[in-house]
Structure formats: C-alpha cells, structure tokens
Amino acid sequence: MNVGGVPRARATTAPERVDALPDVSVVLPTYDRLPLLKQAIGSVEAQHFASWELLVVDDGSTDGTAEYVRGLGDPRIELVVLPHGGNVARARNAGLRAARGRYVAFLDSDDLWLPGKLAVQLKEMTNAHVRWSYTGYDLIDLKGCDVRRRAGSWQPRAGHIAARILTTEVGVAVSTLMVERGLLESVGPFDEDPALNLREDYELVLRLAVAAEAGVVPETLVRIREHEGRATQGRDDAFERTARVYAAFMRTCPDPRLRRIAERRRAYHLAEAGAEQLRRGAWASAARFYLAALRSGVGLGQWLSAARRGVTGAFSRRGVP
C-alpha cells in the first residue's frame, strides 16, 4: 500500500555493499514511531538516486524499532541505538558521527521524501556550487492527505538568506535539508543544550546561512506530517525556546546587522512567551518575560498587544467575561 505516494519499506533482497563511500548519508532519528518509521524508510529506499546510506538512530524505542531495522537486511541501512534521552539533537549528532558520505541529508521519522528528492537536490547543489540547500515541501496528516498551511505560502530563496531566515520570511524544514559534511564540520553539529531542544534545527540552519550561501529547489520533494504525535505539536513553550535560539545566535554571529535583527526577534518572542504564561495563569513567570522583552527593545505596540492578549486569555481561563 502506498501512503502519500511513497511505498512502505520492505525487507527485500538488498544490494551487495560496495567499497565506495556513499555520496549521501541520511540521518533519521526516531523514537516509538514504528508504523511511520516504516514509511519514512520506504521513502529513502524508493529514491531514484542509489548512492546513499541510511543511519537510523533509535533513541531507546520500546516498540520493536531496532528489531525491525535489523530485519531489513539492507547493508546500506545502519542502526545506531541510544538509551532514551528525548534529545533529538543528541540523536542526530550520533548519526552524524557515523556518517561516511560527502553530503548529509536529514529525515524525521514521521516525514516522507518523494522519489526524486536526493537526485534533484544533489544536482542543484552541484550546478549552483553551493554547500547546503533545502527544498519545497507539503504538509500532510497521518492518512497522507494534504493539510493547509497556517502561516502563508512557502517562499524559495537562494544565496545569502540569513536575514530572511531570522525574520521567518524563509522557512527551512529539517527534512528538506542537505549539507556538505565539510561545512557541518566547520560550523559544528546540532546544539545539544536541552534549552534548545526541538528548536535545534532552526539554530543550526541559522549558522549554516551565516557561513555559506544556500541553494534551493522550489519543487516539492518532501511531505511533512502535522499530527498530534509530532514532537513540537501543542508545545506551550515554543516562543521561549525560539527566543533562546536568537540569544544563542547573537552570542556567535559576527555580523552586527544580523545580531540586531535577532535581538528584535528575541524581544518579540519574549513578549509572546509572556502572553502564553499569562494565559496559563503563571503571573510571575509572565512578568519576567514581559520585562525581558522590554529590556530587549520590543516595540511598544507589540508589547501592549502581547500584554492585552495575555490578560484576556488569563481571565477567559478563569471564566471571567
């Protein structure tokens, strides 16, 4: 059965391992998502491009993930088993340490690649002489049906795009990302700081964008799932975590113009984090975020809007009209 146009993984006769190193190492972290993982692996096996290795990093799953991957019998697929820690940056970095390819691509275990993804993206990077790139993507649900975007249309941009990524004018999904391994070694791996967990991909993309020009494939080559089991779904600290990304960026970015943009974005997210805390009834925590936003230079209009929405949400939660 096909899901979202991509076949499930099958334990078929695998090709013989060759001595030549793969062109692309695919890093796929997972935890207790075996039904979706099978589809993700199947989308790698269905690639038109053959020179790949797949590093499945199992973060201590209890649903038979390790046994399933071992049973595939494909020498191109390697299992990396970790004790469960819930830190996706740590899992991805474990895959990076085992990677042998010149390029590294990332795939989340609930997402899917279309069959031409690796071939088209690698060709674009070669032709454009870029060291990292990303592609277009669609959103789907658990049944593979299209989901409407909540934040407008996706805009492809190439070149020096760090400022556009900071302002979220450009969005780079980790499952669309391909990077020359030498560039990753230069900028450093995913940040394993627990404070950045679930936003570590955004932090890495910002470092890549500062270090090198980006290539882009406007074509939709990835299908990203929106579902209740998604790691970032329903988080009530997303604004706080994103503000930490901007703070980390400001500590390392050498460009003062980009640091100023990051400071404005951090101030905005601190104010929104305050509103979120207020809606939850955490008044003291909300006050700290609102004060930090003011100190970071948030616009008065933005601050008042966040404060008003926070207060409205707090009283609505209490049932006050």
Describe the structure in your own words.
Strands 3, 4, 5, 6, 7, 8, 9, 10 and 11 form a 9-stranded mixed β-sheet that branches. A two-stranded antiparallel ribbon has the order 1-2. The protein folds into 2 domains: 2-225, Spore Coat Polysaccharide Biosynthesis Protein SpsA, Chain A (Alpha-Beta Complex), CATH 3.90.550; 238-317, no CATH class. The protein has helices at 34-45, 65-71, 88-98, 117-128, 162-166, 181-187, 200-211, 238-252, 256-279, 283-295, 300-317, and strands at 2-3, 6-7, 24-30, 52-59, 77-82, 103-106, 112-113, 132-140, 146-147, 178-180, 214-225. Strand 3 (24-30), helix 1 (34-45) and strand 4 (52-59) form a beta-alpha-beta unit. With 321 residues, the protein is α/β, with parallel strands linked by helices. Mean pLDDT is 89; it is low at 1-18. The protein is 42% helix and 18% strand.
Attribute tags:
alpha/beta, Spore Coat Polysaccharide Biosynthesis Protein SpsA, Chain A, 2 domains, 9-stranded mixed beta sheet, disordered N terminus
Q: How many helices does DSSP assign?
A: 11
Distance between the termini: 51 Å
Report the order of strands and helices.
EEEHEHEHEEHEEHEHHEHHHH
Structure class: alpha/beta
What is the top-level CATH class of the largest domain? Answer: Alpha Beta
CATH topology of the largest domain: Spore Coat Polysaccharide Biosynthesis Protein SpsA, Chain A
Mean pLDDT: 89
Overall form:
globular
Q: Which architecture of the largest domain would the CATH scheme give at its second level?
A: Alpha-Beta Complex
According to DSSP, the number of beta strands is 11
The CATH homologous superfamily of the largest domain: Spore Coat Polysaccharide Biosynthesis Protein SpsA, Chain A
Strand content: 15-25%
Low-confidence stretches: 1-18
User: What integer value in Å does the Rg equal?
Assistant: 21 Å
Proportion of helical residues: 40-55%
The main sheet comes to: 9 strands, mixed
Tally of domains: 2
